[in-house]
Write a structure and sequence with these properties.
Length: 634
């Protein structure tokens, strides 16, 4: 295989769909028709909800690009001006949400009208009077221009608040609107006239049933989103309007709203529960991300690139003993933007920074450190509006084990609570130990231990339940936090580094074998202690595998070291060595108990066991000759 050119050509594309279309790969064979895509174009769902980078815009781009798509399609992306217009739009006599709904309904009506006027001829071969009326209406209200949505909206808003030109629909200027009891009522009546005009045109053309619905897609609301109540109202109005339009235009027009999960989930309004049936949440699995990687690798480096070749020859076969693809995708939040960034980073690290012609394990590890730092930062930015305090919570997890219990988290949180409340007084209600767990779980930072699994947010999983007490920091953020081991256990320094003191008295040639025997006995006791702890850790069913691994690892090191002393008798002052290990055990036990892996069968037991062994070793070193040390004390 020609490694060199292949790696140089390998490119996984741009990170956002809009640029991925213009100078990336999206429409060059890299698009995956996911369930969300199929649901969006063919299903009955109206709300496509996904986190930042999950592929909302990609679906819009794909739908727009499909030449063969039998339906009409319109993409509406509000820019700042449009957002301002909608936010500011209010009508005397109507609550804010309803007023915003009216302006969105107007947007939908106008866009449908524009589509009908433009395409009636080509799609239906005729232009009935009702369509001509729409054309006149659009012209008279200056809605035919290709100008920016924001500018047109400004005019439409003014028209709704005062008066639109409705002559095209046979309504005389200044119709009996004067009698409307309020600004809101007048706007509503005008809007009814426009919407009925659209309904009539749809009926005359017989759109219903002869072809699929016109897709009215709204994307990129995040551009106009902030935490102000008016922003909420802008989105709630959009939801209400979409529901209204879906009912009014029945099967001829289908509004399709692409919403960021953090925005959608932060809305609360009376009719919110009516939308659950319309929701479709975008989700990605490790397998679908693998498919995405392969599709993009092929689109850039050649269609004949095989999966095997990608994951064995271009990428190293494994990283830290784990298959590379799973190493990578376990360290991403499950969404394509993260996957694309991480994959490109590996490629750049190998090819550009380290000048290699294939990616090595070190390149991946180097990239993963950088990526982790990016992601921690990105998470803060993603939730800047919804949870502005997020960044201030990260120190609670810095330089500790990545497993935490509710108890340990509560202790750490309590220490920081005062500062947090002072900095974010408006969020005091959320800034409680339980509130923080909910937020961190919700954003995908923490997973919750359920049975033998760790579950991260996403999909249809339950939120954290009050009885659940064990959490895990997502692998994606561990390196940036310096939280790369399961629990915060001090490494064992082998005797050579610390307690190894050669005592001349223990020369093998010396006749006094008692001393040697005693030393050997003591070392054997030490090994017994290690085995006792290893055994208990092995039996502790409630212990998470990675915690067990770490305890095992440390115990084995102490044991191997002790075995070394046995074969190299006299190299060490056994008495001192025992005290050193006893001291190490005591610290280890304290850390284990502190890290708060309590409340689960096993962890606490193992902690106490290590504590007991520490005491036993200390007693032995203290000279309980000939005793196992087991008889005294607890
Ligand atoms: N179904 C898909 N197939 C291929 N690439 C995708 C797909 N969905 C998303 N992507 C890619 O993932 C990246 C992020 O997607 P994007 O649509 O910009 O996210 P969002 O709009 O949800 O923030 C883009 O590069 C996009 O091309
Ligand atoms: Mg987008």
């Amino acid at each position: 295989m020609a490694d060199g050119p292949l790696l140089a050509e390998l490119y996984f594309g741009r990170e956002d769909a809009e640029r991925d279309v213009t100078d990336g790969l999206l429409l060059r064979g890299a698009f995956l028709p996911t369930a969300a895509y199929r649901g969006a174009v063919g299903g009955r769902k109206m709300l496509i909800i996904g986190r930042k980078g999950s592929g909302k815009s990609a679906i819009c781009m794909q739908v727009l690009a499909e030449a063969t798509h039998p339906y009409g399609k319109v993409l509406i992306t509000p820019d700042e001006t449009a957002g301002d217009e909608i936010r500011r739009f209010d009508l005397q006599g109507l609550p804010g949400d309803s007023a915003r709904a009216l302006i969105w309904r107007y947007v939908f009506a106008v866009h449908t009208a524009r589509h009908l006027v433009a395409h009636a001829k080509e799609e239906h071969g005729r232009r009935p009077g009702s369509v001509k009326a729409l054309a006149r209406f659009l012209k008279q209200n200056d809605e035919l221009s290709t100008g920016r949505l924001g500018d047109r909206l400004a005019q439409g808003a003014k028209g709704l608040q005062t008066s639109l030109s409705l002559e095209a629909f046979g309504v005389k200027a200044g119709m009996d609107l004067a009698h409307s009891p309020s600004e809101g009522a007048r706007a509503l009546r005008q809007l009814d006239v426009v919407e009925q005009g659209v309904v009539r045109a749809l009926a005359d053309l017989g759109c219903d049933g002869t072809h699929g619905p016109l897709l009215l897609m709204v994307d990129q609301l995040e551009q106009v989103w902030s935490a102000e109540p008016d922003s909420n109202s802008l989105v709630i109005g959009l939801l209400l309007a979409a529901k209204h339009a879906a009912g009014l235009y029945a099967r001829s027009v289908r509004p399709l709203l692409f919403l960021r999960a953090d925005i959608y989930d932060s809305l609360s309004f009376g009719e919110g529960d009516k939308f659950h049936g319309d929701e479709l949440r975008i989700s990605w699995t490790e397998q679908s991300l693998r498919d995405l990687a392969l599709a993009r690798a092929r689109a850039s480096a050649g269609a004949d690139l095989g999966e095997e070749q990608l994951w064995r020859e271009v990428f190293p076969e494994s990283v830290r003993g784990e298959a590379t693809a799973s190493f990578l995708f376990r360290r991403c939040l499950p969404r394509p933007r993260d996957a694309i960034q991480f994959l490109n980073l590996c490629q750049e690290t190998a090819s550009l920074i380290n000048g290699r012609d294939r990616i090595t394990e070190e390149d991946v590890l180097q990239a993963s450190r950088q990526f982790s730092a990016w992601k921690l930062n990105d998470l803060t930015l993603e939730y800047l509006v919804a949870h502005p305090f997020l960044k201030r919570l990260f120190p609670l997890f810095q330089n500790t084990g990545y497993r935490v219990t509710r108890a340990a988290l509560t202790t750490r949180f309590d220490a920081a609570a005062e500062t947090l409340h002072r900095l974010f007084p408006a969020y005091a209600d959320a800034l409680t130990p339980a509130g923080v767990v909910d937020v961190l779980y919700g954003v995908g930072f923490l997973g919750v231990r359920r049975g033998n699994d760790v579950v991260f947010a996403g999909g249809d999983d339950l939120p954290v339940q009050p009885h659940e007490t064990q959490f895990v920091v997502h692998p994606c953020f561990r390196e940036a936090l310096g939280a790369t081991s399961a629990v915060d256990l001090r490494p064992y320094e082998p005797s050579s580094a610390g307690a190894r003191i050669v005592t001349g008295a223990l020369s093998p040639a010396a006749p006094g074998t008692t001393a040697v025997t005693r030393d050997v006995q003591l070392v054997r006791e030490l090994i017994r202690s290690c085995h006792a702890v290893l055994g208990q850790a092995g039996r502790a069913v409630g212990l998470a595998q990675d915690v067990r691994n770490e305890i095992t690892d440390r115990m084995e090191r102490v044991r191997d070291d002790a075995n070394g002393i046995l074969t190299d008798a006299g190299s060490v002052d056994v008495h001192d060595h025992l005290l050193t290990v006893a001291h190490y055990f005591a610290g280890l036990a304290a850390q284990l108990l502190d890290s708060g892996l309590d409340g689960t069968a096993g962890a606490e037991g193992v902690g106490h066991r290590i504590e007991e062994e520490s005491r036993r070793l200390r007693r032995l070193a203290g000279g309980s000759y000939g005793s196992s040390g087991d008889s005294a004390g607890s």
